[in-house]
């Protein structure tokens, strides 16, 4: 009876979990605040990379502050993301299986790298092509004047969602690691997945065919890459199981 009481006392309570969560949230808030202050105080350094030489209008004195805050917020989230992911991992680590813990240790840097690649693809490819196409289309009948707030929204709209879409192989690999997704399933739903990706590319890009096509093609390639990654993971897992079975004989 006494041994059972000792075991129960050793197990962390709900309050202990909440306290750990509070600590990690405080760390995340501190890191985010640090980067937000850093970016906001150096906004003149980032400004040319954000506006790309475009002449923007402000429609009121508060729009300047709105523009600076929006850009600082987005950059701060991006810079603090690796640290926040690490803090979240530290919180959920005790509840993860050995396989899940190994996945996060090995692939967390790759997850961040894919996010940066997607962000760069949106910034250097999708955003300028979409911006030029839409402003040229508007210039046919209208005098094009772009406000700073709308430009910031357009910039974020053509970069962040695409960066998240580039995480598709890692999501597929994680689902395969916890044995929720298989290669057979990915191949079976391939056609429907292409339809879903086409709809998503239309939703996360400006309403022009060129931008949607430029997003859809990498998404299809990433889906095919996901199939290869999951297939490789399944082969490795199968070989490991066979070796363990032979060792136990």
Distance from first to last alpha carbon: 39 Å
Rg, Å, rounded: 23 Å
What share of residues are in beta strands?
under 5%
- Choose one word for the global shape: flat
Show unreliable segments: 4-8
Q: What is the percent of helical residues?
A: over 70%
Q: Average pLDDT value?
A: 84
Number of domains: 2
Main pleated-sheet profile? none
- What's the order of the H and E elements? HHHHHHHHHHH
Structural class: mainly alpha
* Number of extended strands: 0
Number of helices: 11
Defining key terms:
11 helices; flat; 83% helix; 249 residues; mainly alpha
Describe this structure in words.
With 249 residues, the chain is mostly helical. The chain folds into two domains: 10-95, no CATH class; 98-249, no CATH class. 83% of the residues lie in helices and 0% in strands. It is built from eleven helices and no strands. Helix 2 packs antiparallel against helix 4 and helix 4 runs antiparallel to helix 5 (98-139). The two termini are 39 Å apart.
Topology of this structure?
Blueprint (H helix, E strand, L loop, with lengths): L1 H9 L3 H28 L1 H9 L9 H32 L5 H42 L8 H10 L2 H6 L2 H10 L5 H6 L1 H15 L4 H40 L1
Helix pairs in contact: 2-4, 4-5, 4-6, 5-11, 8-11, 10-11
Summarize the structure.
The chain is mainly α and 249 residues long.
């Amino acid at each position: 009876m006494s041994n059972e009481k000792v075991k129960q006392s050793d197990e962390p309570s709900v309050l202990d979990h909440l306290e750990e969560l509070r600590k990690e949230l405080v760390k995340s808030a501190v890191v985010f605040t640090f980067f937000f202050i850093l970016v906001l105080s150096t906004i003149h350094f980032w400004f040319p990379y954000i506006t790309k030489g475009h002449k923007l209008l402000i429609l009121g004195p508060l729009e300047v502050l709105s523009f600076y805050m929006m850009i600082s917020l987005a950059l701060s989230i991006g810079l603090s993301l690796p640290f926040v992911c690490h803090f979240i991992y530290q919180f959920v680590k005790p509840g993860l299986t050995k396989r899940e813990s190994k996945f996060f240790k090995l692939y967390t840097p790759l997850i961040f790298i894919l996010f940066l690649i997607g962000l760069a693809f949106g910034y250097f490819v999708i955003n300028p092509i979409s911006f030029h196409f839409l402003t040229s289309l508007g210039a046919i009948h209208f005098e094009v004047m772009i406000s700073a707030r709308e430009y910031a929204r357009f910039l974020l709209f053509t970069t962040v969602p695409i960066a998240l879409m580039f995480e598709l192989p890692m999501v597929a690999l994680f689902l395969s690691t916890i044995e929720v997704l298989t290669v057979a399933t990915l191949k079976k739903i391939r056609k429907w997945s292409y339809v879903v990706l086409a709809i998503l590319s239309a939703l996360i890009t400006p309403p022009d065919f060129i931008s949607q096509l430029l997003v859809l093609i990498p998404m299809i390639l990433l889906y095919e890459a996901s199939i290869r990654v999951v297939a490789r993971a399944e082969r490795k897992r199968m070989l490991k199981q066979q070796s363990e079975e032979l060792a136990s004989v």
